[in-house]
Design a protein that fits this description.
This protein is an alpha/beta fold. Helices cover about 20% and strands about 25% of the residues.
């Protein structure tokens, strides 16, 4: 299945049914009178976040959605049926934006549901207009028109930890070593063309979701390479793991390049906790590793972890450190959501 994380769709709610003009005509009953029923309400347009989806590919082949029209009213005081609703089912983490890219809704929880457009009301039949003065009204209301709009659906994957780095930094190998995910791994740049998710299971009580996104290069914020469009998938993460290839010449420059692109992208990524790790240390001797680590620590200004996804050196320790930060962030978020506690004697 192809990965699609942004799509434009057009939605329209249903028109209301028209009211009926009708008069009662029955043999041996002398007083008839108006008996035209009301029209049915037009269908609404809803959007709902559901489990089991991780792409918007369904909306690649159908972009227009229209709710049902309400049935017209009929004689004998029969009201029309309401039109069928339309429900757009999207992955958890989907943002809904209007045509000007202004946020309408953020569906971050399974089962979260929102009404995008309301269907038009059905028109009144002539039975509604009878009275002591006008006892035989010969008019009814038409149904209200439905609403329409164009919306953007933008998926931001739900992950706890994000992997960033230059192409060929070993992110996919690290993801494969950390979880049961099987991303494509090769010895050329831009092997990863779409985000990958993996469930990291360190122990029974230590589980989190790890996201691997395509590598960043210099100028990515200006569209170079694959650009920064996939950085949205790590916006929701609590911590970033920044992998630096230890086999390249300038490890400090590699870190600075990616860091610059994160700052240029914004959206709070530059403020997230960052764990910097020197990857692929299995390919170097101890003296070279120490030299590279010292260069990188001087640039970062913090401790640098030494790992190898292939040999699984230091992977578990790094994952435990990331999980501790995830747990800390979740506790802070829960405290903010709960608000200040009411004091009682």
């Amino acid at each position: 299945m192809k990965f699609l994380d942004q799509v434009k769709v057009y939605v329209r709610s249903g028109n209301g049914g028209a009211g009926a003009v009708s008069f009662r005509r029955e043999k041996y009953i002398e007083y008839g009178g108006p008996d035209g029923g009301d029209g049915g309400k037009g269908g609404d347009v809803w959007i709902e976040a559901v489990d089991g989806l991780n792409t918007l590919i369904d909306y690649r082949y159908q972009q227009h959605f229209k709710a049902g029209t309400g049935v017209h009213g009929m004689g004998r005081s029969r009201h029309g049926a309401a039109g069928a609703d339309v429900v757009l089912k999207v992955p958890v983490g989907t943002e809904v934006l209007d045509d000007d890219k202004q946020l309408i809704a953020d569906l971050s929880q399974p089962g979260q549901r929102m009404q995008l457009l309301r269907g038009g009301n059905g028109g009144f039949g002539n039975e509604r207009f009878k009275g002591p003065i006008n006892q035989a009204p010969r008019h009814a209301n038409p149904g209200q028109e439905g609403q329409e709009m164009a919306i953007w659906l933008r998926l931001k994957l739900i992950a706890d930890v994000g992997l960033v780095g230059l192409p060929n930094a070993g992110k996919s190998t690290f993801l494969a070593a950390s979880s049961a995910a099987k991303p494509k791994i090769a010895d050329y740049p831009f092997t990863t063309l779409a985000p990958n998710l993996g469930m990291v299971d360190i122990s029974e009580g230590e589980r989190f979701i790890l996201a691997d996104i395509p590598g960043l290069i210099e100028g990515a914020s200006e569209g170079a390479g694959i650009g920064t469009r996939f950085l949205g998938h790590v916006e929701r993460t609590a911590v970033l793991i920044h992998l630096v290839d230890a086999t390249q010449e300038d490890v400090a420059g590699a870190w600075k390049t990616v860091r610059h692109e994160l700052v240029a992208y914004g959206e709070g990524l530059e403020d997230k906790p960052e764990i910097v790790a020197l990857n692929k240390i299995d390919a170097l001797d101890a003296e070279t590793i120490a030299q590279k680590a010292a260069e990188l620590e001087a640039a970062v200004g913090a401790k640098v972890r030494r790992v190898s996804g292939v040999a699984k050196i230091g992977v578990t320790e790094l994952l435990r450190e990331a999980y501790a930060l995830v747990r800390e962030r979740k506790a802070e978020a829960a405290a903010e959501a709960a608000g200040p506690q009411e004091w009682r004697p």
